[in-house]
């Protein structure tokens, strides 16, 4: 389909943005601090779930869980602390193991303050190699546009996705005050839907970013298998980091035996964005491995535009190549995009998100704006399924 290349949406700026941030922060402060309950995976998504939340410093905490609301089981969380200004931030992390694949569990968290959360649910993944369909969302680049992001989180939950991929630039400066606001925008969603992410260039102090989440491996780069898809999460911020990851990527992809492979990093590889464009150093250090070992799609962000390429292999359009998608921002900062030989579709000047449905040998995708308008629809069929 052909899309409106210059889709416009009026957004509020200046004083309204400042007011929004103030209101969100005031809401967080009224609770003393955001509890920030959120889900992720450190190990097999089919049999584990990691829960993180905050409490008063020094408090102990645990998760009660079960297949129904009698909460048959419990597990104590591990804690870690750090200071932001005069505030001590106290996180709990509990990894629940021994779960059944593709199963809904009820849970709640408790602390010794005392404090108790509402009841929530999570769903484990389908097992590796299982072709049962699943759905996920992609978001990125809130970068201070938290009013838009709050609405997009609501839309994503309505899509009934199994998990969310966040491609970096969660915040604008990376300080804890912004993270507090960021978690407020995801309340009602992140407690029930796991989120996996990659570091962006606007996360600022890397240490603060790593404190907010718990991911596999060294957390900087890692991979997971969800059903018939292998997801590879990379740190694309600089050429030295790209070079450092090359041996790990090579080993990971050589050992990968799943049907689909999706790699991602904050920086796009192919992009006609006029502010940043394509990344030569990622082409130099990653692209040959991706193409040799069967990466099907590469997800990027950073350029604050939406762009999808034709499948590319060996520097030209090839139906067996990699489809590169630069995802549009969830915030309110927009750049412009041109058109290159690889460009299949593009969009600028719109806050947006994308929904992907993996259905056996087919991946179906829709890119949507904050008002629900579908601006791109495409399918990728596996050539060797």
Summarize this structure briefly.
The protein is α+β, with helices and mostly antiparallel strands.
Number of domains as seen in the coordinates: 2
Taken in chain order, the helices and strands follow as: HEEEEEEEEEEHEHEHEEHEHEEEEEEEEE
Query: Radius of gyration in whole Å, from Cα?
Result: 20 Å
CATH class of the largest domain: Alpha Beta
N-to-C CA distance: 25 Å
The CATH topology of the largest domain turns out to be Purple Acid Phosphatase, chain A, domain 2
The CATH H-level superfamily of the largest domain is Metallo-dependent phosphatases
Please give the number of β-strands. Answer: 24
Which percent band covers the strand fraction?
25-35%
Shape by Cα distribution: globular
Helix content: 10-25%
* Assigned CATH architecture of the largest domain: 4-Layer Sandwich
The number of distinct helices, counting runs of at least 4 residues, comes to 6
Quick check: average pLDDT? 90
Q: Sheet with the most strands?
A: 7 strands, mixed
Instruction: Give me the side-by-side strand order of the main sheet.
Output: 13-14-15-16-20-17-21
Query: Which stretches are poorly predicted, pLDDT < 50 over at least 5 residues?
Result: 1-30
- Category from helices, strands and their pairing: alpha+beta
Task: Characterise the protein shown here.
This protein has 2 domains: 77 residues, Purple acid phosphatase-like, N-terminal (Immunoglobulin-like, Sandwich); 248 residues, Purple Acid Phosphatase, chain A, domain 2. Helices cover 20% and strands 32% of the residues. It is built from 6 helices and 24 strands. The protein has a 7-stranded mixed sheet with strand order 13-14-15-16-20-17-21, with no helix packed on it. Strands 12-11-10-22-23-24 form a 6-stranded mixed sheet, with no helix packed on it. Strands 3, 4, 7, 8 and 9 form a 5-stranded antiparallel sheet that branches. A hairpin with a 2-residue loop joins β18 and β19. The N terminus is likely disordered.
């Amino acid at each position: 389909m052909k899309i409106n290349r210059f889709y416009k949406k009026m957004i509020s700026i200046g004083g309204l943005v400042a007011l929004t941030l103030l209101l969100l922060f005031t809401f967080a402060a009224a609770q003393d601090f955001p509890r920030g309950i959120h889900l992720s995976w450190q190990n097999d998504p089919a049999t584990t779930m990691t829960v993180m939340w905050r409490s008063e410093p020094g408090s102990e905490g645990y998760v009660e869980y079960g297949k129904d609301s009698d909460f048959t089981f419990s597990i104590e969380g591990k804690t870690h602390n750090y200071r932001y200004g005069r505030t001590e931030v106290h996180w709990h992390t509990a990894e629940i193991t021994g779960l059944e694949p593709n199963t809904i569990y009820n849970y709640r968290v408790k602390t010794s303050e005392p404090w108790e959360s509402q009841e929530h649910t999570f769903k484990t993944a389908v097992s590796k190699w299982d072709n049962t369909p699943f759905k996920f969302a992609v978001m990125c680049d809130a970068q201070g546009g938290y009013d838009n992001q709050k609405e997009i989180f609501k839309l994503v939950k309505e899509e009934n996705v199994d998990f969310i991929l966040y491609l970096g630039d969660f915040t604008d400066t990376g300080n804890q005050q912004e993270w507090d606001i960021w978690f407020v925008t995801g309340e009602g969603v992140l407690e029930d839907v796991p989120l996996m992410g990659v570091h962006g260039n606007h996360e600022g102090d890397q240490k603060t970013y790593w404190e907010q989440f718990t991911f596999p491996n060294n957390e900087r780069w890692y991979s997971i298998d969800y059903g018939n898809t292998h997801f590879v999460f990379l740190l694309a911020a600089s050429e030295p980091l790209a070079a450092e990851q090359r041996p790990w990527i090579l080993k990971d992809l050589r050992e990968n035996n799943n049907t689909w492979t999706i790699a991602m990093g904050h920086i796009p590889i192919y992009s006609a964005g006029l502010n940043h464009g394509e990344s030569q150093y990622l082409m130099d250090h990653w692209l040959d491995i991706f193409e040799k070992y069967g990466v099907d799609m590469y997800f990027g962000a950073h350029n604050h535009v939406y762009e999808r390429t034709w499948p590319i292999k060996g520097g030209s359009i090839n139906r067996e190549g990699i489809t590169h998608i630069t995802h549009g921002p969830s915030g309110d900062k927009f750049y412009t995009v041109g058109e290159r030989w690889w460009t299949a579709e593009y969009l600028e000047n719109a806050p947006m998100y994308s929904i992907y449905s993996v259905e056996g040998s087919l991946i179906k995708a829709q890119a949507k704006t904050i008002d629900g308008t579908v601006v791109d629809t495409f399918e990728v069929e596996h050539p060797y399924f």
